[in-house]
Amino acid sequence: MKNTQFKQLFTQYKLLALMVAIALIWAFFSWKTDGDFATARNLSNLMRQMAITGILACGMVFIIIAGEIDLSVGSLLGLLGGAAALLDVSHHLPLPATLALVLFCGLLVGLFNGYLTAYAGIPSFIVGLGGMLAYRGVLLGVSGGQTIAPVSPELTALGQGYLAPSLGVALGVLLVALDVLLVWQQRRLLALHRLPLRSLWTDGLRVLATAAAVGGFVYLFNSYEGIPLPVLLLLVLLGVFSYIATQTVFGRRIYALGSNMEAARLSGVNVRAIKLWIFGLMGLMCALGGLINTARLAAGSPSAGTAGELDVIAACFIGGTSMRGGAGTVHGALIGALVMASLDNGMSMLDVDAYWQMIVKGLILTFAVWVDVATRSARR
């Protein structure tokens, strides 16, 4: 009985547990690095590194919720990032043309992966595995195995630029105002339909907590240079993908697909089309991640994105996405990405051997899946 109650409690407050885990990780690395880990500069760099994994996780969480998997995302990120570097360095295309071409190619490749899975009937695991090898081979072929550099300052600014501190403050105020508006609108709708309302002080405390978090977030980044542009892009994607997941018919059908695909099909859901477009979105996120990665490094590297799919999938599982599909959130996946980035950053600062870093990340991934399995009965 106590074991069941513990599982139910853990399931209900899983994200809170993750936030506590992040706080403990940060406290440990701050202690071991004599405070260097917790400096504004390092945390800004950490969030910039996490943004690439987070961008891919936004697309991957939809794929896993739908009961599929995509192992090609790391190689596709490297290929599209290399394509962006080639277009910029070798062909000197203006930035808008480079962005448009790379994003279009990402969408096209993603739709191709989706077509193979949804219409050709090839398991997504095999499609992803084949893509992981093929896209890496294409990247090595077009780059000749050489780093493509230097990219233009305009492209570099996408990965290395910052939002001005004054604009960061304005953005923080806007986000808090938006949160107040959403809470008020939710209370109004509940009252209109004569549904139970939470106490006013509960909503007030939630708004205050959000305001404190946003204020701390803006203050932290403004203590260094400002909010990094990749982090700003990730915040926009968080809002867009969360809206799709919770407020659209398309999002509800993704969850229905992962919960029971046959039941969704019999209910009139176009299962193939949903799969096609979630892979298309994944390709688009690979293009964005590739652009940001190339801009951050100021070069296109033939090794970019190597094993990146493992970090992305681990971030989704750590953030509460079920390996069997049907359950998961975008914000949970991004918290998972922050856990992975924090471990990478902290262990690198401590000069931990690469093999130990792989062991630790592998154990954490295994633990996250075990938690999903152990709490599944509680969710039922």
UniProtKB/TrEMBL annotation:
Transmembrane regions listed in the UniProt entry: 12-29, 49-66, 99-118, 125-142, 162-184, 204-221, 227-250, 271-292, 354-374
Location within or outside the cell: Cell membrane
Main location: membrane
Membrane topology per record: Multi-pass membrane protein
InterPro entries associated with the record: ABC_transp_permease
One Pfam assignment: BPD_transp_2
Role played: Part of the binding-protein-dependent transport system for D-xylose. Probably responsible for the translocation of the substrate across the membrane.
Protein keywords: Cell inner membrane, Cell membrane, Membrane, Sugar transport, Transmembrane, Transmembrane helix, Transport
Secreted recorded as keyword: no
Record-linked CDD domains: TM_PBP1_transp_AraH_like (cd06579)
Protein name: Xylose transport system permease protein XylH
